């Protein structure tokens, strides 16, 4: 990979931002599936996984970086899509619940397939955009991120991601760091359980440092619960109990999509334990990087994950890609890698040799990896 740098004017050009608006194509596709019914309800999974895998293969990698120090006021067209998506997803989701629960041609497996596709939309795009928004400082961005998470009943992701994952990534205290040889079907139930608990404890600890009870009204868990309850009430009002069932189905699929991505982003990677519960700082080589061009448009550069953890406050247009000398590289983009993660023997065949090569490259002096593999090193201070 030969990394080049873009001029600031090239980045500020609205045409440069346009490819990142490709997420909007999901809306007419899911409505086409809803109106047509039958096998067309599966249009979204075919589009987002199948087509983008093929487009990545054809288009290859994007090896160009923006100047990370450029003036951020010129990034309005990039930020706009992340703010616009919340209202778009809200209208799409609840209009779909209203329509589908009254459409005679949609029943049984057609409804399941349609709202599986809606979950792919709210997980692949919605949670990903909420992730970007929650890392930004403006209150409107963070509130929009909370609303997107409420649509999938996963509000605590904000607390867990900002207070736990970024602080403790690649250490035993981070539930989201997938361990070496841990298959996705062991990882998924573990993170569902541990992330909720760790998010609650993180918020409780912050309140305790302020001399406040964990039940204080400033605990964001009250906001998460209120927003999620409002979403359930709206689903009930628009579609009855079937509407609630379809809403929860898409939420479950979205959460599964999120945790599939979490699984592949840090699989087998660990920070060096320095002794006495101290760990080395987070570096680009503690996250898997993928420079695939087209899927990074759809995922607003989420696959440049090595830089995101190195500089968490960096907005997505300025995230840097790295070559293999500076960060480990996934063999393909997220659409392919998440599919591979669903087949643990295939995943291990693809990724375990890469993890072992990563250890030799960055930590040739460590001969015993048993404590790292089992996450039994001391908890970070």
From TrEMBL:
InterPro entries: AlkB/XylM, FA_desaturase_dom. The chain crosses the membrane at residues 29-55, 76-99, 111-129, 224-249. One of its GO terms (cellular component) is plasma membrane. Residues 108-338 form the Fatty acid desaturase domain. It is a multi-pass membrane protein. CDD domains: Alkane-hydroxylase. Its main location: membrane. The keyword Cell division does not apply. It is found in: Cell inner membrane. The keyword Oxidoreductase applies. Keywords: Cell inner membrane, Cell membrane, Iron, Membrane, Metal-binding, Monooxygenase, Oxidoreductase, Transmembrane, Transmembrane helix. GO terms for molecular function: metal ion binding; monooxygenase activity. Pfam families: FA_desaturase. GO terms for biological process: lipid metabolic process. Belongs to the fatty acid desaturase type 1 family. AlkB subfamily. This is Alkane 1-monooxygenase. It comes from Jannaschia pohangensis. The lineage of its organism: Bacteria, Pseudomonadati, Pseudomonadota, Alphaproteobacteria, Rhodobacterales.
